[in-house]
Amino acid sequence: MAVAGAALLAALGSGPLVLLSGIVGLAASAVGVWWFLAHRGPLRLLGAVLAVAAPLVTLYLYVVGGVWVNALVALGLWGVALSCARSALRRPEDERDALMRGESVPPPRRPVLIMNPKSGGGKVERFRLVERAEALGARVILLDPSAPADVAGLARKAVAGGADLLGVAGGDGTQALVAEVAAEHDLPFLVVSAGTRNHFALDLGLDRTDPSRCLDALRDGEELRVDLGVVAGRPFVNTVSFGVYADVVQRPEYRDAKAGTALDALPDLLQGGEGDRLDAIADSTPLTAQQALLVSNNPYAAPDPFGTVAARRTRLDGGELGVIGVRVDGAAQAAELAVLGTQATGLNVLTARRVEVGGGPGAGAVISVAVDGEALTLPTPVVCTLRPRALRVLVPRARPGSPVPPPPLDWRRLTRLAFPEEPGRSGPWGSRTP
User: Fold this and answer.
1) Are 171 and 196 in contact (CB under 8 A)?
2) What pTM was computed for the model?
3) Using omega within 30 degrees of 0 as the cis cutoff, is the peptide bond preceding 117 cis?
């Protein structure tokens, strides 16, 4: 970091105005991004143009001023510094817990798998999951895409017929319905990553690129005990979302254009919100006037309110709900959230065993809720709880796992690691910690 700063200072001989143009360009680009995300219509278009044009103009001025080499060197050194910082902040226990391990169990004798041929854009047919499952001795129930199906009812019928394992090749919402039946009857549950995003499969360390590899658990598997979430009597394996995100999921166009629909809803959140606010209680902690609330089956390793699509949970057996609440009352708080992340006053990140969510002042008796991506409308208060280690999940012993998410940049901790205090002494950064 020091050498990166020195590289920029070395360019002062070419004129401070050139370096000043870089600061102005950075600010202009940030304003453009803000206009693009927080507004609609012509101002959003202008923001997109400004966000792209500002760095290009800055680069041109740097080339004309002859300091582009200094700028590239400083940028490269800053990237190296950040990479070193994240490596120094990694914890060995995070690496050890990256892949949950269970007990080896004998193969099931009468497994039953429910498969949705439409899920994931047709992965069931593309990966020949029916043929491969039947070759391993499983009975497959193929859902009819043209008619609604009682998935939980089909699972219960399979149990009555003697099934000793229930599995699903489908989305997370379908997974949760069958998982509840498996937990009720204390049967192992098999996850086949044939959905679109497969969050549950990701956190179990399963292969999301080839769902047929999940079927290897039928011949060489190990059993994990994981938690199962419950919201208003309904099961969930990943998340329950309230507020702005739930409103997005309720829109008819969300299924075909997730990113575009979410982008259209961002101005309501970043400018203070036009919709109803939510009040919640996480155990005994009140969360008032929240615009968005995310309750997860175990906390996310990187609690980013805008990045949970790519985020993951390192454990699914911790016995606690993860809670992320967002309250933004204007541009200043939105900027603080972007800069400070989890340290921002508008963001609440905590864990709880019970979360009760109700409408804020003026809200109706029902609120929009997204349960594992499925749009629902539930009467208030909506209560989220957890059934610790209620679900037996059968997974292949040989599975890829998932990368450990990078730790957040905690500059105080990084400074303590770089300049540790002597035992028994304290300095400007506080006492030395192990």
Assistant:
1) yes
2) 0.76
3) no
φ/ψ (deg, to 5) at 313: -105, 125
Structure token digits, residue 227: 């938690």
pLDDT for 251 equals 58
Q: From residue 116, how far is each of 41, 144, 163, 394 by CA, in Å? A: 39, 8, 19, 20
User: 3-state SS string over 270-298?
Assistant: HCCCCCCCEEEEECCEEEEEECEEEEEEC
Residue of 124, 212, 110, 119 lying closest to 166 (CA atoms):
110
3-state secondary structure (DSSP) of residue 406? coil
Nearest residue to 373 (alpha-carbon basis) of 308, 314, 313: 308
Q: How many CB atoms lie within 10 A of CB 2?
A: 8
Beta strand 382-396 with 188-192 is parallel
The Cα 434–Cα 247 span in angstroms is 45
338-348 tens-digit pLDDT: 555 566 677 88
| Residue 95 φ/ψ, nearest 5 degrees | -65, -40
Q: Across-strand partners of 294?
A: 241, 324
Three-state secondary-structure class, residue 431: strand
| pLDDT single digits (tens) 227-278 | 999 999 999 999 998 987 676 655 554 444 455 555 666 676 566 555 568 8
DSSP line for 169-227: ES-HHHHHHHHHHHHHTT-EEEEE--SSS-HHHHHTT--SS-GGGGGGGGTSEEEEEEE
CA distances from 112 to 190, 215, 260 (A): 9, 12, 38
pLDDT at 422: 66
The pair phi, psi for residue 42, each rounded to 5°, is -60, -35
> How far is the C-alpha of 207 from the C-alpha of 127, rounded, in Å?
13
Q: Beta-strand (E) ranges in 31-128?
A: 103-105, 111-115
Q: Which of 88, 124, 127 is nearest to 409 (CA)?
A: 88
Q: Compute how many other C-beta atoms are within 10 angstroms of the C-beta atom of residue 92.
A: 7
103: how many CB neighbours lie within 10 A of its CB?
8
DSSP string computed for 114-140: EE-TTGGGTHHHHTTHHHHHHHTT-EE
CA atoms within 13 A on the CB side of 3: 8
Residue 355 near residue 382, CB atoms below 8 Å = no
Q: What are the structure tokens assigned to 149, written together?
A: 């199906």
